[in-house]
Amino acid sequence: MTIKAHQKLLLTGAAGGLGQALRERLKANCEVLRLSDRLAFGVAAAQEEIMLADLADAQAVSVMVQGVQAIVHLGGVSVEGPFGPILQANILGLYNLYEAARLHGVKRIVFASSNHVTGFYHQCDTIDATAPARPDSLYGVSKAFGEDLSRFYFDRYGIETACVRIGSSFPEPRDRRMLATYLSFDDLHRLITACLTTPVLGHSIIFGMSDNAVTWWDNRCAKHIGYVPQDSSDVFRDAVYARTSAPDLSDPVAQFQGGGFVVAGPFGA
Prior knowledge:
Layout: E1 6-12, H1 17-23, E2 30-36, E3 48-50, H2 58-65, E4 70-73, H3 83-104, E5 108-114, H4 138-157, E6 160-166, H5 178-181, H6 185-197, E7 203-208, H7 237-243, H8 252-255
Parallel strand pairs: 1-2, 1-4, 2-3, 4-5, 5-6, 6-7
Helix pairs in contact: 2-3, 3-4
């Protein structure tokens, strides 16, 4: 049974792939789920509010945050691309979100960071949250910034944050890399639930992955969160191998944990 630890919960990026996957699931965590995205995406259902906001608009973000007790922040640019949109959504937008949280007394945020914060570690490496950031892209740089910004707001203002370095969250793994990075939608919800309900969250970094036999990430630094994954990429392994070729180990995409992000771009502004 999921504890409704907060009366009103804000989900940003509600129109995105993961936002859609979590929309129904997160209603178990609150009395009212406030949904937000930049553009209109439909009407509110039972137990929902919809409040549109561009993350780069500080005033709109302040209105969006007012009255909630916790935030699940999925909003922003989620892929590599030109720096301009990444700057506006992932850097300025995140600052606006934390400033709004400070002003309105929100004390707990689940921040969708990314495995691309550490994408330039090799696939033969196993790392934990103490490993220095090695972003593989401008997108990864923006998420590393977000982790640092959230740390500042915890140290200065006491806003607890779980920086969830999401791996690959899809209905099933799409390729051999995702056998290591796979995170099921149900496990993503379990992870967010753990972050929202653990008694003391602090500022924590946790790798968002299911219980995969092959993994590059060690969550030993986040035992206090209480996340126990129940799904695994292992059930998809035979099918993935059957439809994919063996990796070319001279290719950076196969060498580094970030996969295709390590070679994406360059992009103009």
